Amino acid sequence: MEKLNQQRGLRNCNPLNIRRSADLWQGLAERQPDPEFFTFRSMAWGYRAAFIVLRTYHLKYGIRTVQAIVSRWAPPEDGNDTEIYIRKVCALTGFAPDTRLNPFNPSHMGPLVAAMSRVECGVKPDIRQIKEGWMLYMGEE
Asked: Which residues have CB under 8 Å from 84's CB, separation 6+?
């Protein structure tokens, strides 16, 4: 992952670097200074958004494995080395590329999002912020 995006993910409280779109996420910062990526009020809100995107991958598109999730999240046509990204996520989580994940299981999604955040931002994530994001995510159900 390029260093600019690593810094962006931290600066924008957007640990998985969710690109800007027409979506009006809960927890967005009042100012959106980055023209390409959303800025959230806190890392927890950024993690919540990531959990929701991954749930949508599962429910709407049937995307359930590490390989399929990362291939959609960071496709090669966007300039990503998708295979290296998949290998890093698998090494960090202990999941095989074809492990089927459940978006409602914190023992699946917590490690996945932590690993993706580490790849995206280049630093070990704060597990407390991920747990807070999970609580925000589950609180909407």
From this structure: none
pLDDT band at 67 (very low <50, low <70, confident <90, very high): very high
- What is the rounded distance in angstroms from the CA atom of residue 89 to the CA atom of residue 17? 16
Residue 56 Ramachandran class (φ > 0 left, ψ -120 to 50 alpha, else beta):
alpha
- C-alpha 71 chain-centroid distance: 13
Distance CA(139)–CA(141), nearest Å, equals 6
Q: Which residues of 112-138 are buried (b: 16+ CB within 10 A; e: fewer)?
A: bbbbbbbbbbeeebeeebbebbbebbe
C-beta separation of 86 from 71 below 8 A: yes
